[in-house]
Structure formats: C-alpha cells, structure tokens
Design brief:
Order of helices and strands: EHEHEHEHEHHEHEHEHEHEHEEH
CATH architecture of the largest domain: 3-Layer(aba) Sandwich
Radius of gyration: 22 Å
CATH class of the largest domain: Alpha Beta
Distance between the termini: 26 Å
Mean pLDDT: 97
C-alpha cells in the first residue's frame, strides 16, 4: 500500500506524476488555501505533507496528524514550520536549498537597478501620458556601477549577488554572523565589515539572511539612521527582518533615498504607507519565481518527501 501525502498548493503536473509513482496523492490543484481545520482533516490519515511557505505547520497541526512522517517545504526558509515540534514527534522536515540561489540573486539585482534608475516611476509617467519630451535633468537616478554594495548575509544567495556585482565593477563589503572563508571572499571579491561600517559606507544595502527571532527587525530605525541619506535598501530575503513601519518613516523623511522590496511583514498584507511612496519599488515575493526554478524547487521537495517515506535520508533534511 502506497503512503498517502497531501499537497497544499497547486504544483506542476510532472511533479504530481512523479509523486504518484510512489504515493497516494491528495493534490490541491484548485490552489484554494486550506484552513487549519481543513488541512488537519486531510492530514489525519496521511504520511507526508508537501507545503509552501504560506502554510503554517505549527505544534497544534502536528498534534492532529498522528501518522505524519515528513513535512517537505517548497522553499529554502522554513520559519513557517515548528521544527522543534516536528522533531519531538520524529517528523522529518525538509527544504529546497541551492536550486533557487541564482534566480533570487537576479531578483535582488533587478530591484537594485529598478530602484536606482526609478523604473517604476518613469513607467507610470509614460503610461499616464505625461512625457512631452527629453530634458537634461529629467528623472535623474543613481549609478549602480562603481558603487559600494553592502551585503548582510553571505550565504549561497549573498555570494551569488556578490558575483553579479563584479560585472558592475562594484566595491563589495559584507557582514555575516561568522566571517566567510578566505576562498569565498576571494571568489566574491568581497571584504568583511562590521555592521556599523557596512551601513555607513554602502550605497546599496542588500539583506540576505533567514528570518528568525535573532534577525527580527535586524534593520530598524537605529540602523536606517546609520545609512547614507543617498543609500538604497534592498530586502529580497524575508519579511520581518526589516521593521517596515520604521522603513516607511525613513523613506518619507529622507533618512535614506529609496528601497526595493520583495518581502514584507505580515504579507500578503503590507504597510499601507508603502503605497503612498514613489521612492520604493514593490514586488510580491517573486525572488524564485521563474518557471525553471519553481519547477526545480517542487521536484526537489518531492524527492525529499519520497526519500523520507522510503526509509532513506532525505537530501535536504533540516532536523536530521
């Protein structure tokens, strides 16, 4: 008898076909988010769960799923899952690292360029029929090339961002909980700096670390005040790392020049103050959203799940 699994959101048909070779699949291809009670009912007789970062897998849900053996998250981050509660029950938790590094780094650079060159502002200007001709001092932005890029969080994605910066002849500095190995610094052409030094020197500050209690509001009013008035903040990592209310105030009052955001506190809701500002570029958490990358993430999660239910060690277990 095949193990039973539940998939919380719509995924690609080829991934479902792969899973059906190994499991009895309950797939939510209608993509209607489950309530906690509905998900608990589905999991009552299930062995595995494939979920998205929007699904909350907490201790209460785990307690209502007595047969659950594995939770496969279609994401690198897993702060949506109560890992200690799963571990206490012997439930493996997996994620999808590596496959989305380059796409997420691309998006961080897209936000940087769009914010520096005011792309969303000038597109609205044209679409609204306001463009009447060329002017020398029209829509002046700031240069990305030769600027100083400060990366907070020098993991795989942070390193990928640093490598892209080389093409723009940027001066790269970084801050991390632990200094990176010399060979990583050399490949990234990056110099280690303290947090205060990075905030004071960087023209662009890019955040790229996991969300946790330790990184909650890592960037707040005090940190924003240490940045240059001409600096631009890019958050393409996780909501909650930035104090969004403090950022809205900083953008309104000119503490920093601009921001490019892909993530927010309490998303999909966001601070309405952002919508009143022109000096912020907003994206709806699309860091990994290319077809190739999202397919790879879903298949990675599927292989993690199948391995766990086959009695093997999943390739990407976060609580081994």
């Amino acid at each position: 008898m095949k193990p039973k699994i539940v998939i919380t959101r719509e995924i690609f048909d080829d991934v479902i076909d792969y899973l059906k070779q190994h499991c009895d699949v309950d797939a939510n291809q209608a993509d209607v988010p489950c309530t906690p009670d509905a998900l608990a009912a589905k999991l009552a007789g299930s062995d595995g769960l494939m979920c998205a970062l929007t699904d909350k897998v907490d201790a209460a849900l785990v307690a209502r799923a007595p047969g659950l053996k594995v939770v496969a998250n279609i994401a690198v981050g897993y702060n949506n899952i109560d890992v200690p509660a799963c571990t206490a029950r012997g439930i493996k938790v997996t994620n999808t690292p590596g496959v989305l590094d380059d796409s997420t780094a691309d998006l961080a650079f897209a936000l940087m360029l769009a914010t520096a060159r005011r792309i969303t502002e000038v597109e609205s200007y044209i679409r609204n029929g306001e463009w009447t001709g060329w002017k020398l001092k029209q829509w002046l932005g700031v240069d990305v090339h030769h600027a100083t890029l400060g990366i907070i969080g020098m993991g795989r994605i942070g390193q990928a961002i640093a490598r892209r910066a080389a093409g723009f002849d940027m001066n790269v500095i970084y801050h991390n909980r632990k200094r990176a190995a010399p060979e990583i610094e050399q490949r990234a052409r990056a110099r280690y700096a303290s947090m205060d030094e990075l905030l004071a020197q960087a023209d662009f500050v890019v955040l790229q670390m996991p969300y946790s209690p330790d990184t909650h509001h890592l960037i707040g009013a005090a940190q924003l005040a240490k940045m240059k008035p001409s600096a631009i903040l890019i958050n393409s990592t996780r909501g909650g790392v930035v104090d969004d209310k403090a950022l809205v105030h900083a953008l309104k009052s000119g503490v920093i020049r601009a921001a490019g955001l892909d993530v927010y506190e309490g998303e999909p809701k966001l601070d309405p103050g952002f919508l009143e500002l022109k000096n912020v570029v907003l994206a709806p958490h699309i860091g990994s959203s290319t077809e190739a990358t999202r397919r790879a993430m879903a298949m990675c999660a599927a292989k993690n799940l199948v391995a766990a239910l086959s009695g093997q060690a999943p390739p990407n277990c976060v609580n081994p």
